[in-house]
Design the sequence.
C-alpha cells in the first residue's frame, strides 16, 4: 500500500482521476492530512463513507513511531522516531525566542559526508528519508506544539543528497492547499554541494538557504568537511554567487567556532575575503561537544569574530546553542536508543 502522506496535490488529483473520483475530493483529503494533520481516514468526516473505505483499501496513512522524548531544561525537546524498517532518526523542537518555535528536521538516516566535528557524520548513511517521513516529523511535533513559526532542515543528514524528497516535502509544507507554511520561514542547510545549490536556485522559491562553511581555507575545510575536496571553496563561492544573482536572496553562512582550529586571525581574514562580494550573512555557532578532538572557542574569540566581520560591513550574529545538555544540539544527533 502506498503512503498517501507522500503524495503531492498534483499526484493525488491524478490518482483520483484514474479512480474516477472528483478532483475536489483530492483537495479535501490533502487538506485533512497536511493542514489539519489528520492521519485517520475515519476522522475525515466530510468524505462519504464509501470513499473512505476505498481510500483505506488503497492507501496507508502511516507516520512515525515516537520512541522517546527527551525534555531539556531550556525547553528544547528531542524526539527519537522509529521508522517502519526499524531505522532511527531524531528531530528537535526549540523555543528559540519568546515568539519563535522552531522544528529541526532530519533528511537522512545518518549521513555519508563524515564531517569530523559532527556526531551524525560518524554514523555513515543508512538511507534517505521519504517525503512522508520528512513531513511526519514536522506534523507529529506540530500536533503537540501548534503555532510553529520556523522549520529548519538541520537535523540528521545532508538535505541536498536527498534532493527530490526534500524539495517535495518542502513544496507540500508551503503549498496553499496543504500546510500553508510561510516560505521565508523554512531554511535548508547544506554542507555545500555546489551543483545542488545551483539547482535549488532554479526552484524559484522563497525558501532560505544556509551553507555550513566552517572554514574559508581549502586545506582546513577539506580536513573538517571532506565534501570540500569535491566542491572546493572557489566552486562553492561561484555557486553562491549564482544563487544570489538568480534568486535575489541572501545566503546564511554557518561557521562553527573551534578553539585553536578555525578561530585565529588568519581564519578571520580568509572568512572576510570569502564573504566579500557575496550576498551573505554569517552565523557564528558555538561548538557543541561531540568528541574530544575539538573544544568550543572562548566567548571572547567569538565576539572578536563578530566585531571583525561587522567592521568589514559583513552581517554577523552568534547563534546560541540550544539543547546541548540533552544531546539535541546541532551536530549531536546520533539517534541512540539510550538517549
Ligand atoms: N548536513 C547539513 C545539515 C545538517 S547539519 C549541513 O551540514 O549543513 C546542521 C548544522 O549543524 C550545520 O550547520 C553544521 O555545521 C552544524 N553542526 C554539526 N556538528 C556540530 C557541532 N558539533 N556543534 C555545533 N554545530 C554543529
Ligand atoms: Fe552530514 Fe551535515 Fe553532519 Fe556534515 S555536518 S556530517 S553534512 S549532517
Sequence:
Amino acid at each position: 500500500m502506498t503512503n498517501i502522506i507522500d503524495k503531492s496535490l498534483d499526484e493525488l488529483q491524478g490518482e483520483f482521476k484514474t479512480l474516477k473520483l472528483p478532483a475536489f475530493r483530492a483537495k479535501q483529503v490533502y487538506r485533512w492530512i497536511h493542514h489539519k494533520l489528520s492521519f485517520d481516514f475515519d476522522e475525515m468526516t466530510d468524505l462519504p463513507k464509501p470513499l473512505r473505505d476505498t481510500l483505506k483499501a488503497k492507501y496507508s496513512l502511516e507516520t512515525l513511531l515516537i520512541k522517546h522524548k527527551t525534555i531539556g531544561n531550556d525547553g528544547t525537546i528531542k524526539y527519537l522516531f522509529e521508522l517502519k524498517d526499524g531505522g532511527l532518526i531524531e528531530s528537535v523542537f526549540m523555543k528559540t525566542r519568546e515568539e519563535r518555535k522552531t522544528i529541526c528536521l532530519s533528511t537522512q538516516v545518518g549521513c555519508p559526508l563524515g564531517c569530523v566535528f559532527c556526531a551524525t557524520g560518524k554514523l555513515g548513511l543508512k538511507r534517505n528519508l521519504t517525503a512522508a517521513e520528512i513531513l511526519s516529523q514536522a506534523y507529529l511535533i506540530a500536533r503537540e506544539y501548534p503555532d510553529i513559526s520556523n522549520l529548519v532542515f538541520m537535523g540528521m543528514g545532508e538535505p541536498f543528497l536527498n534532493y527530490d524528497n526534500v524539495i517535495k516535502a518542502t513544496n507540500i509544507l508551503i503549498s496553499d492547499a496543504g500546510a500553508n507554511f510561510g516560505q521565508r520561514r523554512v531554511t535548508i542547510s547544506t554542507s555545500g554541494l555546489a551543483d545542488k545549490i545551483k539547482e535549488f536556485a532554479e526552484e524559484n522559491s522563497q525558501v532560505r538557504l544556509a551553507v555550513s562553511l566552517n572554514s574559508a581555507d581549502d586545506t582546513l575545510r577539506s580536513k573538517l568537511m571532506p565534501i570540500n575536496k569535491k566542491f572546493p571553496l572557489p566552486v562553492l563561492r561561484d555557486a553562491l554567487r549564482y544563487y544570489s544573482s538568480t534568486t535575489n536572496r541572501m545566503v546564511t553562512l554557518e561557521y562553527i567556532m573551534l578553539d585553536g582550529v578555525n578561530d585565529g586571525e588568519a581564519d578571520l581574514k580568509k572568512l572576510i575575503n570569502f564573504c566579500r562580494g557575496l550576498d551573505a550573512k554569517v552565523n557564528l555557532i558555538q561548538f557543541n561537544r561531540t568528541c574530544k578532538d575539538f573544544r568550543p572557542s572562548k566567548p571572547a574569540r567569538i565576539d572578536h569574530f563578530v566585531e571583525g566581520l561587522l567592521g568589514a560591513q559583513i552581517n554577523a550574529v552568534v547563534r546560541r546553542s540550544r539543547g546541548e545538555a540533552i544531546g539535541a544540539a546541532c551536530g549531536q544527533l546520533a539517534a541512540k536508543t539510550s538517549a
Remarks:
- The domain at 2-60 is CATH 1.10.150.530 (DNA polymerase; domain 1).
- The pocket of iron/sulfur cluster (ligand 2) is lined by residues 111, 113-115, 118, 120-121, 157-158, 191, 212 (CB under 6 Å).
- The two ends are 32 Å apart (CA to CA).
